[in-house]
Amino acid sequence: MKFSIIVPAYNEAKRIETCLGHLCAALRSLPGADLDCELIVVDNNSTDTTAELARRAGARIVFEPVNQISRARNSGAALATGDWLLFVDADTLVSSGTLSETIVSIKSRKVVGGGAILRYDRTPRFWKTLLFVSNRVVIPWLRWTAGCYLFCRSDAFRAFGGFDQTLFAGEDVEFGRAMRRWGRPRGLRVAILRRHPPITSIRKIDLYGSREIFLLILRWLLFPRRTGQNKSALRVFYDGRR
Q1: CATH code at 62?
Q2: I need a labelling partner for 198 at 20 to 30 A (CA). Which of 8, 18, 78, 145 fits?
Q3: SS3 239
Q4: Phi first, then psi: what are they for 28, rounded to 5°?
Q5: Nearest alpha-carbon partner for 150 in 211, 209, 98
Q6: Does residue 2 register a pLDDT over 80?
Q7: Rounded-to-integer distance, Cα 204 and Cα 238, Å
Q8: In the predicted model, is pLDDT for residue 32 greater than 70?
Q9: pLDDT at residue 140, rounded to an integer
Q10: Which residues pair with 200 in a beta bridge?
């Protein structure tokens, strides 16, 4: 089994080395896994040293000039050679436990792909209830897949076209729906991993404040496609602050 790990990165010089370091350490510590792996970082038109740092860490670098997360992930997948694609965001830390749980799910031959519940590097008081509900209800029961950790069969990915490039946000949830549509008639489900959650950052709350992030989430819940297609309203993803 060959894995292609794809890390989209836009101005991630502060975090890319830590992300890749955790991934490489997790891969090395997997007990006897029959796993061939390639590591791809998609430089999504960064203006900092993201690409140089990722190359130094041993990653293959792909350049995507159009600044859009869907395109970045699709560009990495287009050059990937693995049987399975694993997408990890640059502000997310993956453990050997997370990878082991992913491999067990894949080897069951019952899944088309999946995601995971999440841990956060810290949780401000205002967000504790919302993040608890997200982890305990929204992600596991609605099978919503968070983009910071996603995996998928490469043949399925290519069959349904990967990430929706009309969306600048919310593409991860739509990707989960596409996996379900492809997998259901083939008797395959979308897995949600729960035992070893990856750790992701709440830096957007620190950078933009709880009010702006909360209102953005609310707009997306009420008008998902309209919000996801309006790049000018998504500065928290695209204004380059990290």
Answers
A1: 3.90.550.10
A2: 78
A3: coil
A4: -65, -30
A5: 98
A6: yes
A7: 11
A8: no
A9: 73
A10: 92, 120
Q: 98 near 3, Cβ under 8 Å? A: no
CA 135, 169, 66, 83 dihedral sign is positive
Work out the average pLDDT over 47-72: 98
Question: Does residue 198 register a pLDDT over 70?
Answer: yes
CA–CA distances in Å: residue 85 to residues 7, 153, 155, 203: 11, 6, 10, 26
**Rounded to an integer, what distance in angstroms lies between the CA atom of residue 18 and that of residue 92?**
9
pLDDT tens readout for residues 60-117: 999 999 999 999 999 999 999 999 999 999 999 999 999 999 999 999 999 999 999 9
Pull the structure tokens for residue 108. Answer: 């069951």
- Three-state SS string across 153-183, please? EHHHHHHHCCCCCCCCCCHHHHHHHHHHHHH
Domains in the chain: how many in total?
A: 1
C-alpha separations of 56 from 7, 16, 17, 26, 59 in Å: 15, 11, 9, 18, 7
* Domain span holding position 22: 2-238
